[in-house]
């Protein structure tokens, strides 16, 4: 997810920047619209950004010298929809590249596409699917955060495989190699991230239920997975 500075071939780095840019521009507009329509959402927007920054800044060693991170984008995708997270996630990646040397500026487009675009859309799509199948808030949030995490690293694996195909088996072989390296640490990380995101949402249900209603997250007789909330409007 944090492809290192200068790691991608220049053509690939430029191509991913071009692909990610429209999503980020659209995200900037979505943030402006959201703040104009609901100024009180600024605090939750900041919280979603901080959650993404902190979780994705954690660095857990994987095999062959690589590392894995939670992503933190599932929360913001559920609260504010994927376009907003395209901007927030990209801003997070810029600060991490400049302050923590996680990722880089030349690889920003690729990292933004996997973390800030693909991950949030996977999260929101899976969240909606669980909700439409009758799932309550807790399970839907867990699935969203879990799949956002795994989806981000699946896209990163594909990006690396495109840049460095296996000499014998091509893209497919390289993709399986990169994906298997990440999966050793990423699957348990995704489970942990899902559980943590559910706990955060449960806290938000208790302290700011009105805002969650306005965002369309809380529904009548909604629960966080184990107990009913007070939000029954």
Structure description:
With 233 residues, this protein is mostly helical. 71% of the residues lie in helices and 2% in strands. It is built from eight helices and two strands; from the N terminus they run ααββαααααα. It has helices at 10-37, 42-57, 73-80, 82-99, 108-132, 137-163, 170-207, 209-214; strands at residues 60-61, 67-68. The protein has a two-stranded antiparallel sheet. Strand 1 (60-61) and strand 2 form a beta hairpin. Helix 3 (73-80) runs antiparallel to helix 4 (82-99). The longest helix has 38 residues, at 170-207. This is Cobalt transport protein CbiM. It comes from Pseudonocardia kongjuensis. Pathway: Cofactor biosynthesis; adenosylcobalamin biosynthesis.
Task: Show the helix and strand layout.
Elements: H1 10-37, H2 42-57, E1 60-61, E2 67-68, H3 73-80, H4 82-99, H5 108-132, H6 137-163, H7 170-207, H8 209-214
Antiparallel strand pairs: 1-2
List keywords for this structure.
233 residues, mainly alpha, two-stranded antiparallel sheet, 8 helices, globular, membrane
Can you summarize this structure?
The protein has helices spanning 10-37, 42-57, 73-80, 82-99, 108-132, 137-163, 170-207, 209-214; strands spanning 60-61, 67-68. It is mostly helical and 233 residues long. Strand 1 and strand 2 (67-68) form a beta hairpin.
Largest sheet: 2 strands, antiparallel
The total of beta strands comes to 2
The helicity comes to over 70%
The proportion of strand residues reads under 5%
